[in-house]
């Protein structure tokens, strides 16, 4: 498999020669061990990829000759958003990496009432940037041409209201709403219209005591799915009630209780199997 490099700003004028940044040049020459004449694939994170050749390797100023970009779809049939309670240590890095590999479209890190991790705004933004870089690297490794967007860290209540509230309203007004596609929305977290943060048509709240299992829980016929994953000690009764009021349904992930950093990978793999990807 050819090496892959994320170049988000190079898809509009093709074919062309581009000069890589110092960090990209270092990665290409020192990590990927590529030199003049070697081939690779570049992708823009919005669904397009192109073949490329190393035109010149000059230490910190490597140049690539790019071929035409084309849309190559390797995405899940559903746009899946994972609401993940903050984990300790490197566990959150692992969640972001594996969720990206398994097809998540977006990740929303949240602080819950029982979260052990507490981040002030400055540190939270630095961690978000770090997780976004992990998502980019995981997309490159896994062959994805779209990079999941990692949302700013926020409270669990804000996240479930943002992602779940309209799902409940649509479900009560239109019984067949699972097949409807919502239009663009404005994320309160980002303050601008972006489709990457859709209001979902089906919302799952992982709950070891739920009667419905991942293998039988409802999936949208098309459109979006949101999966909320709590901290090690679980959601509080208040958070559980809030999520259900916002339209989330309880779903269990097998007969055993999974660690919070394991749950996302397990449920995403199960969903991918139900969708026929495996």
Architecture overview:
The chain is of the alpha/beta class and 278 residues long. The chain folds into two domains: 4-71, Hypothetical PUA domain-like, domain 1 (Ribosomal Protein L25, Chain P, Beta Barrel); 79-274, SPOUT methyltransferase, trefoil knot domain (Alpha/beta knot, 3-Layer(aba) Sandwich). It is 31% helix and 21% strand. It is built from six helices and 13 strands. Strand 4 and strand 5 form a beta hairpin. The radius of gyration is 20 Å and the shape is elongated.
Shape: elongated
How much of the polypeptide forms β-strand, as a percent range?
A: 15-25%
Helix content: 25-40%
Q: Roughly what is the average pLDDT, rounded to an integer?
A: 86
Order of helices and strands: EEHEEEEEHEHEEHEEHEH
Task: Supply the number of structural domains.
Answer: 2
Question: Tell me about the biggest sheet?
Answer: 7 strands, parallel
From the coordinates shown, what is the CATH architecture of the largest domain? Answer: 3-Layer(aba) Sandwich
Total beta-strand segments = 13
Task: Offer a quick outline of the entry.
Helices cover 31% and strands 21% of the residues. With 278 residues, it is an alpha/beta fold. The protein has 2 domains: 4-71, Beta Barrel (Ribosomal Protein L25, Chain P), CATH 2.40.240; 79-274, Alpha/beta knot, CATH 3.40.1280.
